[in-house]
Amino acid sequence: MTSDTVGFGPVWPAVSRAIAVVVHSNVFIALAAASVAVTASRLCRYPLDPVPICIVFAATLFVYSWNRLTDLAEDERNVPGRAAFTRRYGRPLAAVGAALYLGAIGLAFVRGLPGAPFLWLPAAVVGLYSLGRLKRLFLVKNLLVGVSWGIVPLGVGVYVGRLQPTLVFFAGYVTVMLTTAAVVFDIKDIPGDRREGISTVPVRYGPATTRRVAQLVNLAAAAAVVALVWTSLLPHRFLLLLAFNAYVGAYVPLATRDRGPLFYGFVIDGEHVFLAALVLALDAVGWLG
Fold first, then answer.
1. pTM of the model
2. Mean pLDDT, residues 81-104 taken together
3. Which of 30, 46, 104, 214 could make an SS bond with 60 (beta carbons 3.0 to 4.6 A apart)?
4. Tens of pLDDT along 167-185?
């Protein structure tokens, strides 16, 4: 596997290879999804319970591992390095993901966890996205990604047994921001998507317009946070989300076709890892209240 750049210049080869493994194996994207559960728990003042966090990690690893197999032909054109990794390790990793996912479902039913029947949703997502080929419909795949990630905070609330307004807002925020990230992500796939006849925002309108629209949505989301805190509809701790918007605002202008896949798979997908780390750090010093 060749070294890559993560968007900010050359990366030391050993570090680059390590990043490539965690990104291409889908461990990093599963960690990012689990980070959403962590942020939702602490930002909305729920207990930090490892069970829903581990369930989210397992379900996400399952979804993305199987998606890599079904999208292998497209990846060979768009992301050849990831495709080579998938050809070599994809099936064992997908088996691990399936085992963890089924184990999470079994645990949920054995323990009688609230919302256990909804744990079949990730399998439905795999079918709709990969086998149902919804990705060919304009914006549908982006919305499916955004909604799927937005369900994560709601799952935390169902597990705890309390869906409070702040959690519902955060779920909507995650949905909007992940849909935006998914649109930006399509910039790297323009040549392959165009050949496959897949209509995406970058294919239709070009990378520059895509970046402008993504930045406008990002600014609108940040303005909504400020407005809701200003009117006391959200606690002041939600201003922490502005750091997330700043992170997004920093990577959007850098999202070009010539960026390596690790920029998209590590920098962009790392946005929620960044937010969760920040939330946990500030919570540890008592800033969140």
1. 0.89
2. 86
3. 30
4. 999 999 999 999 999 999 9
